[in-house]
Design brief:
With about 425 residues, the chain is α/β, with parallel strands linked by helices. It has a seven-stranded mixed β-sheet, with helices on both faces. Strand 2, helix 1 and strand 3 form a beta-alpha-beta unit. Helix 17 packs antiparallel against helix 18. The chain is elongated and about 70 Å long. The chain starts with 9 loop residues before the first strand and ends with a helix.
Length: about 425
């Protein structure tokens, strides 16, 4: 166990001290205990390092702003322990950390396994909406729906103790850290960079995964030059928990045979010899599907120079208003309105909204007040959604509208309350 400064992660080691290091990264809402059933077999050959995400599993609640931030904290933790080279297996958000390491710090990785992972997890809107729900209702709605996202129906029914354990893992997570992790996933998109992943990679997915399923796995395999695909039958998103024996066998085989050695003049941990024998599969585990062929990835596009204000503006506009709204506006744009939309994107979003002088919460407060004063109710609905995504709670939006009632007039505020009430109801109602 560890004492955890803000720039590092809570961790634990299992296995022989002189063995090569294998890191296991967790999924959003889980703890390092999601890997418990892999530990007995993996520690026969590796010194296994597990970590908790910020605010998960009792870890200090120091929210991470991005996947890159999580990778940086992981490397800082490893630096303090003298671990310079390692294998890495990560599930979902943990897999995103692994991709980030492979892209930014390839010299540290000997081999990589990506489980229930994707180069882009759904849409930014989906994760920001989840953050709104948590900010308004707490983690209980997310916790209650976790089993249907993580497990097949048959497993959840047959394993009530594991299902309840999963619910409690989410319930005991720090809400602020969970929301920050959602934001990190919302902004994560490495599709253009997959061709630069230069380590041997196993892409592993449950056949029944409805969150990041076989289609996302095949995207990874097609994009990463040295990648293989394994599909585990009868498993959903949290496949290391649902099919532990199959996952363990696949990890042992991959890291035993695809551990990239260090150059002779490099330093780091001793690596596992390539000839190490794979562990025998557990009899009760279903056999994974054959690994798939891989297709070479197209070279990532090269960008020249810094983005202009339009590029910055469209990014901020999507982050604040959501992809769905911006896509709808752009689809409706024609030759007559195109210049106006470019003007708005460059000036309002690329310059004013992107200025560092005020944070986005404050800008949302100012914008809501101005829209009430002007009676712009259509835009008020859009920016009420934006305010929730920017971190305002429904109670804080109510306070803004009460303040506006004093200075903009009760009739204007009355209309604004009706609009905002409907938006808040739609955005903060947990899914059935």
């Amino acid at each position: 166990m560890s004492e955890t400064p803000p720039n590092t992660l809570q961790y634990r080691f299992d296995g022989p001290e002189d063995a090569p290091v294998l890191i296991l990264g967790p999924s959003l809402g889980t703890t390092w205990h999601m890997w418990d059933r892999q530990i007995p077999e993996l520690t026969k050959q590796w010194r296994v390092f597990r970590f908790d995400l910020p605010g998960h599993g009792g870890a200090p609640a120091h929210p991470a702003a991005s996947v890159a931030d999580l990778a940086t904290r992981l490397l800082a933790t490893l630096e303090g322990l003298g671990v310079h080279r390692f294998g890495y297996a990560g599930c979902a958000l943990g897999g995103a950390v692994g991709i980030e390491l492979a892209l930014r710090h390839p010299e540290r990785l000997a081999s990589l396994a990506l489980i229930a992972a994707s180069p882009r997890f759904g849409t930014a809107d989906e994760f920001r909406q989840r953050g709104v729900i948590v900010r308004t209702n707490g983690l209980d709605p997310i916790a209650r729906s976790a089993p249907e996202r993580w497990f097949t129906g048959g497993f959840a029914a047959a394993q009530p103790a594991i299902t309840e354990w999963a619910v409690q893992m989410v319930r005991t997570t720090d809400p602020g850290c969970y929301i920050a992790a959602c934001e990190a996933l919302a902004s994560f998109d490495v599709r253009a960079g997959l061709g630069s992943v230069g380590v041997p990679t196993l892409v592993l997915v449950g056949s029944e995964d409805q969150v990041t399923g076989p289609a996302e796995a095949r995207t990874l395999v097609a994009g990463i030059p040295d990648a293989r695909l394994a599909v585990v039958p009868g498993a959903s998103h949290l496949v290391p928990v649902e099919q532990p024996a199959a996952v363990t066998d696949l990890l042992v085989r991959h890291f035993s045979t695809a551990w990239q050695p260090l150059p002779e003049n490099a330093t780091g941990h001793v690596v596992l010899p390539a000839a190490a024998a794979p562990a025998a599969p557990v009899a009760v585990a279903p056999q994974p599907a054959p690994v798939a062929a891989i297709a070479p990835a197209a070279a990532p596009p090269q960008t020249q120079g810094a983005p202009d204000t339009y590029d910055a503006g469209i990014k901020v506009r999507r982050e604040v208003l959501g992809d769905a709204h911006v896509d709808r506006i752009l689809e409706q744009t024609d030759a007559f309105s195109e210049d106006f939309q470019k003007l708005v994107t460059r000036y309002a979003w690329g310059e004013v909204w992107d200025r560092p002088g005020l944070d986005r919460r404050t800008r949302s407060c100012v914008t809501l007040t101005a829209l009430v004063a002007g009676g712009h109710l259509d835009e008020l609905a859009v920016h009420t959604r934006a305010a929730l995504r920017n971190g305002l709670t429904p109670d804080e939006i109510k306070e803004v509208l009460l303040q506006a009632a004093v200075y903009c007039g009760v009739p204007a505020a009355s209309r604004a309350f009706r609009v905002a009430q409907q938006v808040v109801r739609e955005e903060t109602t947990p899914p059935e």
